Each structure stands twice: as structure tokens, then as C-alpha cells.
């Protein structure tokens, strides 16, 4: 990157599609243009991102999805970040496809907790013949509850994609993970083109595309910007763009990777919002390690979707009550959530808080006071 900051800023000012009052939907972005956005002073970048965000979304609403692992472990892929890969010893046990009844119960709990989309993930290279019909039934059952449905099952062929569409699937998740240039450093068992081909199958079938990537895997800034360019230059922007921050899991090749700088992550959220104005930008994996302040800045930068629940497949996620408390502090409401459900959750939390307060003020304390 030999361009100076002043040159990049000049390019930004000269491009009306970046600097105008209205966000232009484009599919011909260049890395240098995205870099110009990324390297703006933070206040200017956040102002631009929030301005674009307000043209297409209610600024104080965040969409909430819940993710369930329906088949865990022993995946034949060698994704360097993934604790479910059968190539690494991460202490994760191989599990069979969960029962339909268990999925229904989890989806009911997700809806009660305020989620509007229920996502199901299976650790497969591609759907297995004997299990695929069961997954189709899971989609139908979840859809019947009034929840949006999303699955991530690996690579798809045309017939499988059409069956998913017939079952009522709303979203299919298939991340690009990183740039085409850095991809072989992370995965060798599947090509970048394989991923793009699956996205084409999904898009052609009329299913909403959920595609994003993972930041902080040792890639360069240019790799990150190239990932955003690849997503933004698809024939149609993904309807949902999950931006993950690496969770360095012990036993994977990336277990010792240094944590990403929070401001770099926030800048990437803002850039994704600007170049894909109509897409939901999701704070995905890694949120457990983010402070409330960092999450708040991500929302201001244009993130308007989260995974809601205590687990993301096999890794930790913030507690739901904590998310609701953060939303309340920020004046954010969950998009489309049943207000009765949210009210009940608030009531339950108030009862817990009252019980704790009563215990702390009782004559007989619950805990030994080591000071006195």
C-alpha cells in the first residue's frame, strides 16, 4: 500500500458515490476505494457509516438470531480456525444429528427469548443423504413457529438447494472466511471457488444469502479489504453479512494468534456498512470477548444484527440478559421481537434482582464476610 493518506482522502472526496447524500448500491468496488474509507479519521468514518445506515434501517433496532449446532464435531474440512475440524484435537466430541424434537424445543425457547431467526449449523463438508431429509423437516417445523430459518450445511448442489427452498428456508449461511489470496493459508480441503459456487446455487434458488468472514486470523489489512470487496461485488449483496472476530481455540492452528485491535474491527464494520448499505451486518463470533463499549461503537458503525444466546455452535456467547441490559442502556430494541416475550424476560430478571437485593439486606448474610 504505497498511496499516502492524503492521496487516499483525495480519492474519497473525488468519488461522489462515496461522498454523496445517498448511498449508491454498487458491485464494482476496488480495494483502493475501500481502503480510502477504512483510513478516514474515525469520526468521519463513523459519521459516514451511520448516515448510510439510517437510509435503509431503523437506527435503534438490532435483529437477533439464535444459532444451534445440530451436528457437532468430526468435520472433514481443515479450516484452521474451527474446533469442529476432525484434523485437530480440541477436546470436542463427535455427535450425531440431534433429534427433531430437540430442535423444536430450542427454537421455541429462542422465540420466547426474542429471537426472530433460528439458525442451524451442521459440521459437514456437504449434506449427507440419510440426514438431509431430517434437516428439511427441522426447517419446516421452525418455519411453522413464525421464525425465520437459516442453515449452514457446507457445500450444496442444485438439487439440495431446490429442496431447501421448497422446505421454506429463508437464509443459507456460507462464509467466504477471508480473501481469495489468503484463503489457502486457512483452508486446503475446499477451494474459494467452491464457496462462490455454493453462493451462486443459493442465490439462483431465491434463498437469501448469508455470507461474511472472519477477522484476526493473521491476514493483512489488504486481505480484510479484499474480503469486503469480494462480498460487495457479488451479483447481489448478501442479505446478511456476519463479521466474525477470531476466537482462538486451543488445539487449532490459530490458537496463539494475537487478538485483533478493537478499533480495526470497528473500522471493518463501518466499511462493510458503507459498501453494502442494504445488508444486515451481524456482530457474530467473538462478541463474548468484546466490551460493552466496543459493541456500542460497532452498533454506531452500522452493525444491526447479533447472535443471541449462550452458545455459538461450540463457543461461548454473551448471556441473553446481558444483551438485553446493554440494549436498554443504549436505547436499542430487538427488531421484530414479541414485546410480550421481552417484557416477560424483563420481569423474570427483575424478580432475580429483587431476590438478590433482599438476600444482601437480610440480617443473615449468604456469604462469609472475610473483612470483619
Give a verbal description of the structure.
It contains 13 helices and twelve strands. The chain is of the alpha/beta class and 372 residues long. The chain has one domain: Alpha-Beta Barrel (TIM Barrel), CATH 3.20.20.70. Strands 1, 2, 3, 4, 5, 6, 7, 8, 9 and 12 form a ten-stranded parallel sheet that branches. Strands 10-11 form a two-stranded antiparallel sheet. Helix 10 links the parallel strand 7 and strand 8. Helix 9 runs parallel beside helix 10 and helix 10 packs parallel to helix 11. It starts with a helix and ends in an 11-residue tail after the last helix. The N terminus and C terminus are likely disordered.
The CATH H-level homologous superfamily? Aldolase class I
Which class in CATH terms? Answer: Alpha Beta
Counting structural domains, the number is: 1
Taking all Cα atoms into account, the compactness measure Rg is 21 Å
**SSE string:** HHHHEHEHEHEHEEHEHEHEEEHEH
Question: Span from first to last CA?
Answer: 62 Å
**Overall mean confidence score, pLDDT:** 83
Q: And the CATH topology? A: TIM Barrel
SS element count, helices = 13
Helix content: 40-55%
What proportion of the residues form beta strands (DSSP E)? 5-15%
Give the low-confidence spans.
1-21, 311-317, 359-372
Give me the CATH architecture, please. Answer: Alpha-Beta Barrel
- Structural shape: globular
By secondary-structure content and strand pairing, the structural class works out as alpha/beta
Find the count of extended strands (DSSP E, 2+ residues). Answer: 12
Outline the biggest β-sheet. Answer: 10 strands, parallel
Amino acid at each position: 500500500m504505497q498511496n499516502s493518506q492524503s492521496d487516499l482522502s483525495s480519492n474519497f472526496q473525488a468519488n461522489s458515490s462515496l461522498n454523496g447524500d445517498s448511498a449508491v448500491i454498487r458491485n464494482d468496488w476496488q480495494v483502493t476505494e475501500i481502503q480510502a474509507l477504512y483510513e478516514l479519521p474515525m469520526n468521519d468514518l463513523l459519521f459516514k457509516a451511520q448516515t448510510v445506515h439510517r437510509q435503509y434501517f431503523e437506527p435503534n433496532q438490532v435483529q437477533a438470531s439464535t444459532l444451534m449446532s445440530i451436528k457437532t464435531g468430526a468435520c472433514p474440512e481443515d479450516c484452521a480456525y474451527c474446533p469442529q475440524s476432525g484434523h485437530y484435537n480440541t477436546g470436542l466430541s463427535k455427535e450425531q444429528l440431534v433429534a427433531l424434537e430437540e430442535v423444536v424445543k430450542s427454537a421455541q425457547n429462542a422465540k420466547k427469548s426474542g429471537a426472530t431467526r433460528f439458525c442451524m449449523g451442521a459440521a459437514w463438508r456437504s449434506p449427507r443423504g440419510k440426514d438431509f431429509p431430517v434437516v428439511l423437516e427441522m426447517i419446516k417445523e421452525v418455519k411453522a413457529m413464525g421464525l425465520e430459518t437459516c442453515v449452514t450445511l457446507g457445500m450444496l448442489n442444485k438439487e439440495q438447494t431446490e429442496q431447501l427452498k421448497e422446505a421454506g428456508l429463508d437464509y443459507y449461511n456460507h462464509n467466504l472466511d477471508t480473501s481469495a489470496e489468503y484463503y489457502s493459508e486457512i483452508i486446503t480441503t475446499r477451494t474459494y471457488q467452491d464457496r462462490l459456487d455454493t453462493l451462486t446455487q443459493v442465490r439462483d434458488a431465491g434463498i437469501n444469502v448469508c455470507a461474511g468472514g472472519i477477522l484476526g486470523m493473521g491476514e493483512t489489512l489488504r486481505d480484510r479489504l479484499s474480503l469486503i470487496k469480494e462480498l460487495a461485488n457479488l451479483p447481489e449483496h448478501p442479505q446478511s453479512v456476519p463479521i466474525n472476530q477470531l476466537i482462538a481455540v486451543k488445539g487449532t492452528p490459530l490458537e496463539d494468534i494475537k487478538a485483533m485491535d478493537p478499533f480495526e474491527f470497528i473500522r471493518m464494520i463501518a466499511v462493510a456498512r458503507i459498501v453494502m448499505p442494504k445488508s444486515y451486518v451481524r456482530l457474530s463470533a467473538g462478541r463474548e470477548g468484546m466490551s460493552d463499549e466496543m459493541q456500542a461503537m460497532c452498533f454506531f458503525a452500522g452493525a444491526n444484527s447479533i447472535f443471541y444466546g449462550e452458545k455459538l455452535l461450540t463457543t461461548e456467547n454473551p448471556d441473553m440478559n446481558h444483551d438485553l441490559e446493554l440494549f436498554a442502556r443504549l436505547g436499542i430494541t430487538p427488531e421484530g421481537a414479541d414485546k410480550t416475550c421481552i417484557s416477560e424476560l424483563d420481569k423474570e430478571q427483575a424478580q432475580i434482582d429483587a431476590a438478590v437485593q433482599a438476600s444482601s439486606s437480610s440480617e443473615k448474610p449468604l456469604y462469609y464476610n472475610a473483612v470483619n
